[in-house]
Amino acid sequence: MSSLKRIELDVLKPHHPNSLDFSSMIAEKLPGARIELTVTEVDEKTETVVIVIAGENLQYETIVEAISNMGGSIHSIDRVEVESESELLKPVNSEEHV
Amino acid sequence: MFKQLALLLVITRSRSLVRRYFVVNGFDGALTMLGIITGFYVSDRTNLSVVINSCFGAAIALGMSGLTSAYMSETAERKKELRELEQAMLENLNGSAHGQATRLLPFLIAAVNGLSPLVISLIIISPIWAATLSLELPFDALECALILALGILFLLGAFLGKISGTNWLWFGLRTLFIATVTSALIYFLALP
User: Is this prediction's ipTM beyond 0.85?
Assistant: First the structure.
């Protein structure tokens, strides 16, 4: 079992909603997450943005749904940070410390 | 539902469009009623039911005109915009908020465009209705309706002034001036 801690996505989105609304709407779907959006390219009707989302146990499907709902399209996953949960969740057994 | 509607208005930047339709068509409705009622006022103050039916007929026609024309033009415009955006995105956006906006916003805009003149017209002719129901009015029924029309036109102007962030009173007085000029033209040009 692993949990997604950080993900960096290359996304093509329409100009509207703007970057502030776009990232705020993603944040609404991911309580406690931190979103960083950087516009890397601007075309006539679209813009390419790099979105970095960091948080605890992020749900990738929720992120995809939020982006698609606003007309965005994920081009690539450029970086991820995943943490294994098995060790963290294992109950502490006193015998193991002996 | 209201949250989703707000999102659709944001992504399509339609909030100002809805406001514009409300004011423009509300202004149309109020000025039309002012014109008809002034026409009756300067002629031989015919039977009040004739005045109501004339005003009501015009109000319904304005409402229907606003409803259908806005729906058809908005649907066409939104579909064109969505198609262009889909070409730029190289993706089908039917399932996105943009696709939803293309389907739903024409209804909302048509409703605002149609209901604005209809509701404003009905408010203006309400004193004439009241008079037919033998309710007591401070002035003559037509005079009350004219005052109401002028008041609503002033408020629409003041609303515009508030939106523009300038002097609402000045905007209100300007629309009141337009309404007064319209009434004066009808008053002086109408056949005795």
Answer: no
